[in-house]
Specification:
Length: 797
């Protein structure tokens, strides 16, 4: 009897399991069938469109991604054990890795169906004439012109996109990876986490006897001279003979710079490597976007920072210490008594000075902290100046940039050795790997502050970009590792295409000419690249988990990257004009205050944020900007909670007033101290200019109100009013006037809520508004969704 019951239960189990499997297969087949049906429909519509001479470049990309991801979904379904393992490397996904691996194939198919439905809807509107759109200005990857402040293709400004670390091991000529859909930028340094570092510029190409390894040189010289590209210096490893020769070579190393930049042997090695590289690659298309002199450099020197676990600045070499002593001797005019007074020390001479690195954070705000942090910045700037000089001995016209993390500027930390302004001045292009996040950081245990107002976390990209554009308004901006699509602290398998469109449009509007996203690791059959197979054990632990939840699993994401670039390149002239809109207000930035204070950049963001939604780009002023640039290109400089400045910074501000400039200061406390916290006897005086010093404890909003009244005549002729149901603004916008008297207005809603907008002229005239993206007319009052993007033409006729 018991056996009969057992057999009955077993039969029921298999029947129920079969039902579930049947339902699952039916659902899968239904999703597949719908996607295939939509592919056939879009293909027919494209034929109709072509017969009417309608450009279908946008649909070609959607169709390509659809077919690719249906193939990828099949691979993921057939290899769930491997996909599950890849999810398991990411701390966020690991706890439910089986579930994610099980759901991924159908999720990919569903996203394909959704983006095909959207493409069909849009193309039908274009075909019936109810929507008008510009043809795509296709990128000619083999004929890019590097012009002043712009890249050009077919004679027009163009914005380039691609994916970093792209399918390692694949040939650069593989059209399934290098194409109009994923981008066609060739680059060296793909195997960045392998000892060989294929196609990266590195010390392994140099032998101990001073000769060069022909096989490793060939990895650089074999790059086809057909497509625009870049080369990267990889600083992680070095040959054993260097370790054997120089016992101090790794003292003072950092996360991605595995050697002491003050070491004489390493300087000699890199001199030879750079000269040889310049000689071999001079004039090649792969260098049109420059030589990246470093990957994410920083030298955090304070105790307790997370980089300490990666042996960053756990000590310093004798070379670094001696250079610091020389720097101090020059800084103090060889007067050891002045240093002892500042440091509360009793050194007999500068050669006797010692310093403990990493440094205790309690010293922040004290002279010893300032001197070390300032020196740490100066020495890194000198290192990159040296590297560039070696390269240009054999390639005088070489363009260069550095993949600086913008958070080095935006965050309050300052022991990292990165002077963003100085490094941007050194190189001929602006380099960075700016990041945003479309959702809350995985590391946050509670809602983050930005979530109260915004659709995504944008300020780590926006604030540094406005600073960079203020420092170097005519340099090409190459973001060689955009972390907009995913980052180690944030990913979302259901990333909204609206977010993708908004963030790439915003960063391009703020100066980005090239956006190379992290990352593409699918081989053409759907499997992950070789580097992500087998047991993953990388020096950088973030890499192992990067595949999970990334662009490689999201057709709607990568399709939207291609789509937004096609749209931006169709309106590249308008975007360039908007980028060059005048920056009438300049926030004064002092690295002196940033080094000394624990919250300088947090406070600065308050003012920056208040100005970000007023119809013009935010600008910056520094001592160098004031002294080197035409002061008439702005109306006023704003000083906010900036107590510490050097004598040179103070004199630059006074000189600006002497020439008739306007400065608005939040309180008498600002500018009152020198770099060592000593009270300054001088105060700013009007002279020929206008000086407004407000009472203490004014807010950023108070300072903004005074500033806007002061420059009222220079504000846009257009007035934008926003109602999003809150007391704050979420729409950032810019406006420029055309030669024919019409206005081009770009509006980006980065707010978390939809908004109702009203556009009219200052003089009260009603505005005639056309949506340039679809040719439709808008009323003076209209809506914009959260993450919405609008490009409008406005006239009073």
């Amino acid at each position: 009897m018991k056996q009969d019951n057992y057999l009955t239960i077993v039969k029921l189990y298999f029947i129920i399991s079969s039902i579930f499997m049947f339902v699952a297969c039916a659902q899968e087949n239904q999703i597949n069938a719908e996607a295939i049906k939509n592919i056939k429909k879009i293909e027919k519509l494209m034929e109709i469109a072509r017969s009417k001479s309608i450009d279908v470049t946008r649909e070609e990309s959607t169709l390509w991604f659809s077919k690719e991801f249906l193939k990828f979904a099949n691979w993921d379904e057939a290899n769930k054990d491997k996909v599950e393992k890849l999810f398991g490397y990411d701390s966020y996904y690991a706890k439910d890795k089986e579930k994610f691996a099980e759901e991924l194939p159908d999720l990919e198919r569903q996203k394909v169906t959704e983006m095909l439905n959207n493409a069909i809807y849009n193309l039908e509107k274009v075909i019936d004439g109810s929507v008008k759109r510009r043809p795509v200005n296709k990128i000619n990857w083999g004929n890019i012109e590097v012009a002043n402040n712009a890249l050009k293709s077919n004679g027009k400004p163009v914005f380039l996109f691609d994916y970093f670390s792209k399918t390692v091991g694949a040939k650069l000529t593989d059209s399934s990876i290098y194409n109009d859909h994923l981008g066609g930028i060739f680059h060296g340094g793909q195997r960045l986490y392998e000892v060989n570092m294929d196609r990266a510029v590195n010390p392994f190409i140099l032998n101990e006897d001073g000769t060069f390894n022909p096989d490793k040189l060939e990895l650089i010289t074999e790059i086809p001279d057909t497509n625009v590209g870049f080369l990267i210096l990889w600083n992680m490893g070095m040959p054993q003979w260097i370790h054997d020769k120089e016992p101090e070579v790794t003292k003072g190393r950092s996360l991605f710079t595995g050697f002491d930049i003050d070491n004489p042997l390493m300087r000699d090695v890199w001199s030879k490597v750079m000269k040889k590289t310049g000689q071999l690659t001079k004039g090649k298309k792969v260098t049109q976007l420059g030589y990246i002199l470093s990957n994410e450099p920083h030298w955090f020197s304070e105790k307790g920072h997370w980089t300490q676990n990666f042996k960053e600045m756990n000590s310093i070499s004798s070379y670094t210490l001696n250079k610091f002593r020389n720097w101090l001797s020059e800084k103090y005019n060889e007067n050891i008594g002045l240093l002892n007074e500042n440091w509360k020390s009793s050194y007999s001479d500068f050669n006797a000075i010692e310093i403990e690195i990493p440094m205790d954070k309690v010293l922040r705000g004290q002279p010893i902290w300032y001197d070390w942090c300032r020196y740490n910045m100066d020495r890194s700037t000198e290192w990159f100046t040296y590297l560039q000089a070696q390269l240009r001995e054999t390639n005088p016209d070489a363009d260069t940039h550095i993949k600086v993390m913008p958070k080095m500027f935006r965050d309050d930390y300052r022991s990292h050795g990165i002077d963003l302004e100085a490094l941007t001045e050194v190189t001929s292009m602006i380099g960075n790997d700016a990041k945003t996040m479309g959702g809350r950081s995985f590391r946050s245990k509670k809602p983050e502050k930005w979530e109260e107002k915004y659709a995504y976390w944008w300020d780590e990209m926006s604030l540094p970009f406005d600073f960079l554009e203020s420092v170097a308004p005519n340099k090409i901006n190459v973001n060689s590792e955009t972390h907009y699509l995913s980052a180690s602290a944030w990913k979302d398998l259901n990333t909204s295409p609206d977010y993708v469109r908004n963030v790439f449009w915003l960063s391009t509007l703020q100066g980005m000419d090239v956006g190379i996203s992290w990352f593409w690791a699918r081989d053409s059959d759907g499997s992950p690249e070789d580097r992500l197979e087998g047991e993953l054990n990388f020096f950088d632990p973030a890499l192992a988990g990067s595949y999970a939840g990334s662009a490689n699993m999201q057709p709607q994401m990568v399709n939207e990257v291609a789509q937004v670039y096609m749209d931006m390149n169709s309106f590249s002239d308008e975007i360039m004009a908007l980028r060059e809109q005048r920056r009438p207000l300049r926030i004064f930035h002092s690295e002196t205050s940033a080094i000394n204070k624990k919250n300088q950049m947090t406070q600065q963001f308050e003012l920056y944020e208040s100005l970000f939604f007023e119809g013009f780009p935010v600008g910056y002023a520094t001592e160098k900007i004031i002294n080197k640039q035409d002061n008439s290109i702005w109306e006023a400089i704003l000083v906010y909670k900036t107590e510490y400045v050097t004598a040179r910074e103070f004199e630059a501000l006074q000189g600006y007033l002497n020439k008739g400039g306007t400065i608005i200061v939040d309180s008498k406390e600002s500018l009152s101290l020198n770099e060592y916290g000593i009270k300054r006897e001088k105060v700013l005086s009007n002279n020929k200019g206008t000086l407004i010093v407000m009472d203490g404890n004014v807010s950023a909003q108070d300072l903004k109100s005074i500033a806007l009244k002061t420059i009222n005549e220079s504000l846009p002729e257009i007035v934008l009013k926003e109602d999003n149901g809150t007391s704050y603004k979420g729409c950032t916008w810019r406006v420029v006037k055309n030669d024919d008297g019409r206005y081009i207005i770009n509006i980006l809603n980065i707010g978390k809520n939809n908004a109702t907008l009203n556009l009219e002229f200052k003089n009260g005239k009603k505005a005639n508004i056309i949506n340039m993206m679809n040719g439709l007319t808008l009323n003076n009052t209209f809506d914009i969704k959260s993450n919405g993007v609008l490009l409008l033409e406005v006239s009073d006729k």
